[in-house]
């Protein structure tokens, strides 16, 4: 009997390209939604030319919630976002099992921390033997090729 082959871990360029695709999808949906809602409000309340702080805060909160649901939902339900699928990569737990909701939320928190540090957490991919970024270390996940 031969031992199972070690998984092929995704590198920083593949992961970055998948993330760029996902960000383009998220931002396109948010832009289309914002324009549609704005057009509806303009039709219902003609002559209203300004947007107040409550509307800005509501739009921002909705954008954050949608973005979080997009990533966490795809990680839990499919193991990959559309951008990851396009690049042929998927996220799993370290032993290969699918992500749970809790683990996906921890991964999202790690991703936010990485973004807040201006991407320093992504540089771990270059140093880690399993090419894990900060969000993967926090959540106990790996990103593998060919799933």
Outline:
The protein is mostly helical and 147 residues long. It is built from six helices and two strands; from the N terminus they run H-H-H-E-H-H-H-E. The radius of gyration is 19 Å and the shape is elongated.
Can you characterise this structure?
With 147 residues, the chain is mainly α. The protein is 61% helix and 7% strand. The chain has a two-stranded antiparallel sheet with strand order 1-2. Helix 2 crosses helix 4. The mean pLDDT is 92.
In round numbers, the mean pLDDT is: 92
Q: What is the rounded distance between the termini?
A: 23 Å
How many strands, which pairing sense, and closed or not: the largest β-sheet? Answer: 2 strands, antiparallel
Tell me the β content. Answer: 5-15%
The whole-angstrom Rg is 19 Å
Number of DSSP E strands: 2
Spatial shape: elongated
- Structural class per helix/strand content? mainly alpha
**Low-confidence blocks of residues:** none
Identify the strand order in the major beta sheet.
1-2
Tell me the helix content.
Answer: 55-70%
Secondary structure tally, helices: 6
- Spell out the helices and strands N to C: HHHEHHHE
Fold topology:
Blueprint: H1 12-44, H2 53-77, H3 82-87, E1 89-93, H4 101-116, H5 124-127, H6 134-139, E2 141-145
Antiparallel strand pairs: 1-2
Helix pairs in contact: 2-4
